[in-house]
Amino acid sequence: MHIETSTLPSAQTALATQQAAYEKSLTFWQTLRIFWRSTLWIMYGQLVVFSFGIDGVIAGYLLAVPRFRQDYGTTYIVNGAPAYIIPANKQALYNGISQLTAIIGALITGTLADAIGRRATNLLFCVISVGGVAAQFWSNGSLEILTVGKAINGFSIGAWLIIGPLYASEVAPLKLRGWLTSITNIVQFSGVLLFTGIIYAIGAKDSKSSYLILFGSQWVIPSIVILTVYFWPESPVWLCRVKKPEQAKAALRRIHGSDNEIDIEGIFAQIQDTIAHEDATKEATSSASYLECFKGADRRRTLICMFVYGCQYLSGIVFVLGYQSYYYQLIGYSAKKSFLLGMLNNTFQFIANILSWFLIDIAGRRPLIVWGQLLCAVALFIIGGTSLPGTYAGYLTTVCFMFVWGFIYQLTLGTVAWSVVAELASFRLKSRTQGLANFVLCLVQWTVGFTFPYMFNPDQGNLGGKVGFIFGATTFIGFLGVFFWLPETKGRTSLELDELFERKVSARHFCTTKTNLEEEVEGDKNQTG
Questions:
Q1: DSSP per residue over 160-186, as a string?
Q2: What is the CA radius of gyration of the chain?
Q3: Domains assigned to the chain
Q4: pLDDT at residue 109 above 70?
Q5: Cβ–Cβ under 8 Å, residues 252 and 37
Q6: 295-303: which pairs have CB atoms within 8 A and are 24 or more residues apart?
Q7: What is the pTM of this model?
Q8: DSSP three-state, residue 261
Q9: How far is CA 222 from CA 113, 131, 184, 227, 468, in A?
Q10: Long-range contacts: 142-146, Cβ < 8 Å, 24+?
Q11: Helices 264-280/245-256 angle, 10° precision
Q12: 324-353, pLDDT tens digit by residue?
């Protein structure tokens, strides 16, 4: 549908266009210098994702802690000798339960964030998390109570993956948007890295502290947020959507400070102009619903977001990241050495995360995800093939390519997916679209987490590294999907993306198609020239 810009307030549109042109003219480092205050507030909003990183790997890593298996598991004969394991059926339930409740959390969050705001929603789920972790900490050898605690915490896990990226996408200036939405991954991976460091230090100890400290580490971030969230400025986009313009301006002043290089009125006009444009394309503008995400141009945006998030857990992350230490022990490494290998692999992945910050605005979002998926598929097929002989040389090659896969994944899809999903959704349906994308993420994560023990565990399928063949196939399907469907969002404002989707521009032509905004800016330059 074509919307005449004359139907929008001309002064507001002119101010919004001027602000967009200003942000496009800045370099990354100039933008960071000018918008440093908003950058810090966005990073604060991303803090809660740290706990998602811990929850995502805690089940797999606890299986590698001998004392945890002894206190929560049952005796199983391995090579003629008794050993403690968590049976596959209980392991599947414990591993997948938080992803199941995270699905509910993700869907609730879209509605709550639009009803009560980003700040109040964040506070609510931090309180829920503290209660869920308390049940885990005091489960005292009961896998049932431990599972209930993980389920309660799952509601918060589903919410946090929406709140942090949502706030970043609404507040970040154009040149920092890709980086500040992609740091979702570095924050959650920092949780993973710290967790693996703790488990390396204490995981081999024959005492309850070897796992109780791991449970307690999940309290840190929610507790900090509960004590400080009052000072976090509310999203000005949400305040504009609920018709509180003066509060939105006040929030913008708190977010950006009184820097003379930042035009608060220009940013406010940009938000209002985008909202007005999106509302003008709708028959009803009083409310947004999940159903609207599947209508018109928004259907394509929603499906792409859902597919990209689904690709993350179909790419083998549950094996290489979540179960790696347990796998290292199954192929003959000691508990201490398996924790060391896991920490080293995670360190390489952490480095890849940081490198992706620079690549995301150089190479773009689409090339990193598309070719990253292809390379990850190749690495997974090699992992599966080198696991077949069952020899030391074969296992060593498998471990090496687990490191290779981790580096490629975190350099590409693992980091860039957060930026793409945050950028693709329209302002009007952003919380709902991200809620649906996170619903798919958690659903796929739960499905993979629930079925994986039956494929992998010694008392069930006992596939070990041969699961690389399965994940190699699903990752290759992901490559085909993003190759044909994923557009480039680099350097595009929200209004430009609205226009490109309304015009039904093909995914491969997004980066080369000229928008109305670009034509207006060029026209202004020609007049002044």
A1: HHHHHHHHHHHHS-HHHHHHHHHHHHH
A2: 24
A3: 5-278+290-528 (1.20.1250.20)
A4: yes
A5: no
A6: 296/1, 297/498, 297/501, 297/502, 297/504, 298/426, 298/429, 298/433, 298/501, 300/501, 301/424, 301/425, 301/426, 301/433, 301/501, 302/425, 302/429, 302/433, 302/436, 302/437, 303/485
A7: 0.73
A8: coil
A9: 18, 10, 16, 9, 35
A10: 142/72, 143/72, 143/86, 143/90, 143/94, 146/72, 146/94
A11: 130
A12: 888 888 888 887 888 889 889 988 998 998
Question: If DSSP states are collapsed to H, E and C, what string results for 13-80?
Answer: HHHHHHHHHHHHHCCHHHHHHHCHHHHHHHHHHHCCHHHHHHHHHHHHHHCCCHHHHHHHCEEEEECC
List the structure tokens of 482: 């993003």
β partners of residue 76: 83
* pLDDT tens string 404-418: 999 999 999 988 998
DSSP state, residue 206: S
Distance from the first to the final alpha carbon of the chain: 33
- The dihedral sign for the CA sequence 323, 329, 333, 335: positive
Query: How many Cα atoms within 13 Å fall on the side-chain side of residue 273?
Result: 26
| 75 DSSP β-pair partners | 84
Q: SS3 letters for 498-518? A: HHHHHCCCCHHHCCCCCCHHH
Classify 85 as helix, strand or coil.
strand
Q: What is the rounded CA–CA span in Å between residue 353 and residue 190? A: 10
Q: Quick one: tokens of 128?
A: 């829920």
Quick one: how far is CA 341 from the chain centroid?
Answer: 25
Most confident segment among 127-141, 413-427, 453-467: 127-141
Closest CA to 490 of 174, 68, 170: 174
